[in-house]
Amino acid sequence: MSYLTNTLDNLVHQTAFFNLTVGNFVMIIVALIFLYLAIAKEFEPLLLCPISFGMLLVNIYPDIMLHIDQSANGVGGLLYYFYKLDEWAILPSLIFMGVGAMTDFGPLIANPKSFLMGAAAQFGIYTAYFGAVAMGFNDKAAASISIIGGADGPTSIFLASKLGQTDILGPIAVAAYSYMSLVPIIQPPIMKLLTTEKERKIKMEQLRPVSKLEKILFPVIVTIVVCLILPTTAPLVGMLMLGNLFRECGVVRQLTDTASNALMYIVVILLGTSVGATTSAEAFLNMATIKIVILGLLAFSFGTAAGVILGKIMSKLSGGKINPLIGSAGVSAVPMAARVSQKVGAEADPTNFLLMHAMGPNVAGVIGTAVAAGTFMAVFGIF
Question: Coil, helix or strand for 153?
Fold first, then answer.
């Protein structure tokens, strides 16, 4: 009888109910909210589904992220090994290759002025940097946090790893990916606040056709120029342009398909679940995380606003030929930000088609955020 009693007692105490804290329950609720947004509202489900499920797993079973040094048998938790690929910057670089293989740089090549709006949208990054320093973060932590303003999860993970900020990498990554997913909620109010209905109704001229030669030369030239100036950007910019070269050269269709489909989605699963698994209650529910989330939101908002404001200036200088809404797409969230520009423009005039025009600043923002990360690494002497 005592054997049966002890067995039942052991089984009961092996359940998670006896080990969960109030913080764990809070994070489980947050994970369920994220799952709801991903599935019911379709807010970037490819990102939110794995992130929220990783969040759910780690707060029910913390040992799934057990560090190898803390393990009694020298074996870490499953998602710990996924996370090491984040820390080593392997997954962020592979994500960039997949993005490059899926991205058409034609709108940017056809309208080089788009680079300016992509650059303007990086204003939020530098604003957040000084804000983070003012809040008490050290220089490297402030730089890592500020990249959230580019709404670029892979670059945020890459820079935090390179600058040795692994203790805050989890909150940074979750904030960056969350804001990427919430672009359709965060950006429209800012865009409407800064533009008039007349400006939102501006129809832009059709972009010129871009030749195949231009599309092939673009990734090669960008790689040479950017990586010669900032060699530290090679893992991101290099992989982005390699993926794009696969797409545009037309002779490696199998590599293009692999990079943009199978490999890309495998990496998204690994990266998303491991990022979500960094949000244990102990690591996430603290004042530093709250500051990071607030700074990230401010950075993203300032970046969006800066892109729209430059768009307004360019609209004036062009005699009303540029719709300032496309400036908001200068953040690095591809292609979500471009879709939001299209949506807000279509609300003002259903016949307005801004998507391809917005893709110019959008892909410029990807390059711009990587350059911003490379600049911080150069400043801090990281190679």
Answer: helix
